[in-house]
């Protein structure tokens, strides 16, 4: 696969080219926006471009806008390379047509992850384009059109699903399990967990207000932004490199997200969230809760407990303040994060499943492995719902210190 790198900084250009070539990509370079535009006119031009925001002549956003307004034969996935972090500047980049961002100075791990995600999306887009081309050759009726819409949504769902972690996994001595059941083909819930170097793990769960495609699109954007923010903070503090004993501050990251995603005339949405960082050596964990249901801690011995400090949803109040909640996950302890789609799930008589029922379910299955707990949670919710479709997205994730 060919990738275009457009950057007037020769040092950055060489660094990007060296890494991308090492990973097996064919790299084409440009010193400025005008030259990048010329390269993209070629029918065999790269379909993925990493573009520096600040370049002489034609800056990155201007190049993105020109590409989006053009009639290039194939979709070009655009990643802006920038040190800008303000909401207005990021919105400017998105409105110009950028698909994603990479912070400067860039991190090799983040770069590889974003390139891989872009490649996956381009592959899906190519498949979708081929299918649409085939369908356009036939005389299709309304029912066939509905089938196409459904297939498109399924592609979107597969993209969203690809951004979620595996249903079970293990990282640095911690086991993970998860369950995701959107009320539509795509949903507004998103969660993830990933290592920050050898000694720390980051995890989060978020729930976008609303359902369906708009909520799903925003959930992907928020998830990418939050992941980038976590990595940026990790690189700044150095914990991803040297395993420092100083944990990141989830409450500070929640405050930054709150400023970035303030509801406005163009963005009528907010979201709830739990974000946490764990030191795998000691189990020391700090999390912040932003209007999301209280996490449930299931100790290896003793009673279950809810934890967290509550907090306001992200994007709802400009001056909202968030606090950290610190605790220790001892060997054998489990921590469950879940969306209100579970606790507010209603039966035929409008009774809620409730946090109490969820805690009893977790208590009854505390000796089961994580995969079994996730399966039994789904079975119990289906039984409680009585066979009707869920009215809200269902998501739950669990981490266990082994």
From TrEMBL:
InterPro entries (alphabetical): Bact_Sigma-Reg, CheY-like_superfamily, PPM-type-like_dom_sf, PPM-type_phosphatase-like_dom, Sig_transdc_resp-reg_receiver
GO molecular function: phosphatase activity
Tagged with keyword Phosphoprotein: yes
GO biological process, one term: phosphorelay signal transduction system
Record's keyword terms, sorted: Hydrolase, Phosphoprotein
PTM sites of type 4-aspartylphosphate: 52
Keyword Hydrolase among record annotations: yes
Domain spans labelled Response regulatory: 2-119
Classification via Pfam families: Response_reg, SpoIIE
Xref: PANTHER family: STAGE II SPORULATION PROTEIN E (PTHR43156:SF2), STAGE II SPORULATION PROTEIN E-RELATED (PTHR43156)
Protein name: Serine phosphatase RsbU, regulator of sigma subunit
Organism: Desulfatibacillum alkenivorans DSM 16219
């Amino acid at each position: 696969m060919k990738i275009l790198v457009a950057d007037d900084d020769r040092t950055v250009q060489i660094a990007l080219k060296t890494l991308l070539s090492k990973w097996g990509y064919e790299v084409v370079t440009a010193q400025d926006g005008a030259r990048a535009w010329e390269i993209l006119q070629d029918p065999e031009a790269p379909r993925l471009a990493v573009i520096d925001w600040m370049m002489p002549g034609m800056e990155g956003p201007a190049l993105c806008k020109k590409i989006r307004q053009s009639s290039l034969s194939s979709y070009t996935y655009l990643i802006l390379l920038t040190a800008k972090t303000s909401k207005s500047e990021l919105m400017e980049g998105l409105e110009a047509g950028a698909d994603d961002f990479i912070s400067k100075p860039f991190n090799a791990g983040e770069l590889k992850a974003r390139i891989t995600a872009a490649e996956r999306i381009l592959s899906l887009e190519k498949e979708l384009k081929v299918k649409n081309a085939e369908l356009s050759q036939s005389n299709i009726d309304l029912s066939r059109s509905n089938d196409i819409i459904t297939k498109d949504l399924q592609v979107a769902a597969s993209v969203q699903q690809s951004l979620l972690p595996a249903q079970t996994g293990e990282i640095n001595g911690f086991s993970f399990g998860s369950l995701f059941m959107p009320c539509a083909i795509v949903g507004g819930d998103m969660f993830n967990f990933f290592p920050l170097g050898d000694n720390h793990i980051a995890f989060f769960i978020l729930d976008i207000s609303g359902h369906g495609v708009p909520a799903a699109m925003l959930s992907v954007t928020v998830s990418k932004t939050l992941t980038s923010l976590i990595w940026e903070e990790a690189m700044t503090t150095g914990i991803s490199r040297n395993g420092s004993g100083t944990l990141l501050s989830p409450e500070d990251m929640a405050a930054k997200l709150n400023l970035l995603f303030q509801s406005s005339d163009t963005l009528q949405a907010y979201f709830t969230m739990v974000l946490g960082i764990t030191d795998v050596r000691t189990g020391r964990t700090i999390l912040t809760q932003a209007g999301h249901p209280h996490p449930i801690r299931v100790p290896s011995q003793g009673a279950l407990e809810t934890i967290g400090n509550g907090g306001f949803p992200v994007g709802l109040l400009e001056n909202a303040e968030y606090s950290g909640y610190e605790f220790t996950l001892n060997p054998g302890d489990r921590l469950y994060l879940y969306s209100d789609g579970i606790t507010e799930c209603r039966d035929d008589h409008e009774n809620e499943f409730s946090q109490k029922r969820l805690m009893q379910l977790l208590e009854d299955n505390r000796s089961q492995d994580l995969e079994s707990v996730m399966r039994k949670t789904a079975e119990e919710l289906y039984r409680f719902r009585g066979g009707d479709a869920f009215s809200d997205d269902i998501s739950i994730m669990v981490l266990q210190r082994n």
